[in-house]
Design brief:
Rossmann fold; 19 helices; alpha/beta; 3 domains; binds 1,4-dihydronicotinamide adenine dinucleotide; single chain; 596 residues; 18 strands
């Protein structure tokens, strides 16, 4: 079987696994924990070892190997890098989704390198960790691809700052394998001999667990929840019962490098180890934030200087995002020269609270404006992960009185604006294989509102736009959804009844919009209402319909009229993923009829 280069980017998963405290304890026992580390083995005070995260997604690794098309006889687990986002709870369901990100060629005799990345979420919705797997495929080199770039790990010349000696028992692999890796090489003497070893060998990931325990003990005062990264390279096989030594050098505040040696031969069995951790204050900050945070993410909020956009921008920043607050600062109807005031004020508010933000005063309504808004994010923060298309104006007038200017101005900000900003944003997101876009639609567009033909047309146009971006972004990890908010703002001050205004605080729309902007959101193409504490889904429903006539000649208008009850009915209605799938029932109906 040859390497499948098309496997790059193809989604793998979800791979699901339920676990409880006994699994976490069994894993800890498998990697040498005992009565001197009760936190890892006693359910009353259980802390899950961070390295459990790779043990728990072992099935995913198998899927990567199969998906890549590599020759399974030549595969070695070469490196493992894990980034931790939240402490691992002692029980629950783990859902892992990822993809192969790169396939490199080291040359005909040296093999290929397959790199895959996967995020694992807990049943509570929290994103727990991201694994980056590196597989060395010894039999697959020489296909003519690029060579792999390596991250150089520099070890200080001085003696290690910490040394941890352990002696895995001769039976260690027999316990470790119960956590999921039941490969015969670690238990079966005949299999081990056929594979060129004297006897069964330790699992590399078991030694990895020993090193993780040592790092938590010496660097994090025994608090595994402070670990943010743990990276290793597996360099040599180790026999069970042989003592090991983990040597650790602190290189920075919150960073160390390490190696694990076979203490008898002094050979390095785990090399290029990197461990990173956070100070207790950061742990506290993350605890308070909860599961949805935007650390490391960059967001653009258009129309972020007032109303709903301001509320989104403040909360995104409070939860760790770096925010571009875009606002033209014009009048409610979009007239006037605009002003830097609204965007600047929100940026100042974010900075005062300790967050990061920059202002952008461009109009969303021109392609140049859209490009500049996205460029502001890339220039200031180097990337773009989240776009909230929120800017908006109103020019209400009943249709007979609506001038072409009033029509065009509203379409320009809402609908052209969606195109002008989303296009460069999608380009930036696609390059990183990740993005979340939230569009702002409206009940006026979804259901109609007197005097708002321009606005309603633009707002439903945005839904059509989203329906297609959903398909074009899917392969690149970009999800797009639409919110129909309802809130008391400048835009609605004379539309909504005064007694409702007080209950219509914009912050009620924030939780849903932020969820849709977060990694937790697996959905794409959804429309949601949000306001006053109500949250619900809106959808395009196609009724079951009926087939009239023989399909050879069209039925008459009278025949259609006679079937209107069936045509009108939404009973058994369905929501279709795309235009092609919406055609299927037409075909099926015909086929069913033809066969009848
Ligand atoms: P708002 O008037 O308080 O805020 C809109 C912001 O967009 C303003 O700060 C404005 O300066 C900015 N803006 C206008 N044109 C712009 C342009 N060309 N480029 C950059 N910025 C521009 O209004 P609100 O209520 O916060 O509206 C936000 C979004 O929510 C709009 O898309 C609106 O249509 C939508 N919406 C609001 C509802 C509500 O109940 N408030 C109901 C349904 C939808």
């Amino acid at each position: 079987m040859a390497l499948d280069l098309d496997s790059i980017g193809r989604p793998i998963g979800p791979v699901e696994r339920d676990y409880d405290w006994k699994d976490a304890v069994l894993y800890a026992l498998g990697v040498g924990a005992g009565s001197d580390e009760l936190d890892y083995v006693y359910e009353k005070q259980l802390k899950v070892l961070p390295s459990f995260s790779i043990g728990a997604v072992f099935d995913f690794l198998m899927r990567v190997a199969a998906e890549s098309g590599a020759d399974l006889r030549g595969i070695l687990h070469g490196e493992q890098d894990i980034f931790f986002h939240q402490p691992i709870p002692p029980e629950g369901r783990l859902t892992t989704r990822g993809r192969i990100t790169h396939i490199y060629d080291k040359g005909e005799d040296k093999g290929a390198v397959v790199i895959a990345e996967a995020d694992t979420f807990h049943g509570s919705g929290a994103k727990l960790f991201t694994n980056v797997f590196t597989l060395f495929c010894r039999r697959d080199g020489g296909f003519g691809g690029e060579n792999a770039p390596g991250e150089k790990v520099v070890f200080p010349e001085r003696p290690p700052d910490f040394e941890q000696r352990d002696r895995p028992s001769p039976d260690q692999p027999l316990i470790y394998r119960l956590s999921g890796d039941v490969f015969a090489l670690h238990v079966d003497p005949d299999f081990a001999r056929q594979s060129g070893f004297e006897r069964p060998i330790m699992h590399g990931l078991c030694t990895h667990g020993y090193a993780c325990r040592a790092a938590v003990k010496h660097l994090m005062a025994g608090q595994p929840e402070r670990m943010t990264r743990f990276r290793v390279r597996f360099s040599k096989a180790l026999y069970p019962g042989v003592p090991i030594e983990t040597r650790i050098w602190k290189t920075d505040e919150g960073r160390a490098v390490f190696r694990v040696l076979d203490a008898e031969s002094s050979e390095v069995v785990i090399d290029n180890g990197v461990v990173e951790w956070m100070p207790p204050a950061e742990l506290e900050r993350r605890r308070k934030l909860g599961a949805i945070h935007f650390d490391g993410r960059v967001a653009v909020v258009t129309g972020g200087g007032a109303g709903l956009g301001r509320a989104y921008a403040l909360e995104l920043a409070r939860r760790g995002a770096k925010v571009v607050v875009n606002d033209l600062g014009g009048a409610r109807d979009g007239s006037g020269q605009g002003s830097a005031g609204p965007a600047d004020e929100v940026v100042a508010e974010i900075r005062k609270a300790g967050g990061k933000a920059v202002a952008s005063y461009d109009s969303v309504a021109t392609p140049e404006g859209g490009e500049r808004i996205v460029k502001t994010a890339l220039d200031a923060f180097g990337r773009l992960d989240i776009l909230i298309n929120n800017a908006g104006i109103l020019r209400d007038r009943s249709l007979l009185k609506m001038s072409p200017e009033e029509w065009a101005a509203v379409i320009a900000v809402h609908l052209d604006g969606a195109y002008c900003v989303t296009r460069p944003a999608l380009k930036a997101m696609r390059e990183r294989g990740y993005g979340r876009i939230v569009m702002t639609t409206s009940a006026a567009g979804l259901h109609g509102n007197f005097g708002q033909t321009n606005y309603a047309a633009a707002k439903l146009g945005i839904v059509g736009f989203m329906n297609t971006v959903k398909l074009e972004g899917r392969k690149h990890g970009v999800k797009i959804n639409a919110v129909a908010p309802i809130a008391a703002t400048r835009l609605t001050e004379d539309i909504l009844p005064p007694d409702m205004q007080a209950r219509l605080r914009p912050d009620f729309a924030v939780p849903l919009t932020l969820y849709l902007a977060s990694e937790l959101c697996p959905d794409t193409g959804g429309i949601y209402s949000a306001g006053m504490g109500f949250y619900g889904r809106v959808a395009m429903l196609t009724g079951a319909g009926t087939v009239i006539g023989d399909g050879q000649s069209p039925p008459s208008a009278e025949e259609v009229a006679a079937e209107m009850n069936a045509i009108r009915s939404l009973e058994g209605g369905r929501i279709y993923e795309d235009a092609m799938s919406a055609l299927v029932p037409l075909m099926d109906g015909r086929a069913g009829r033809a066969g009848a």
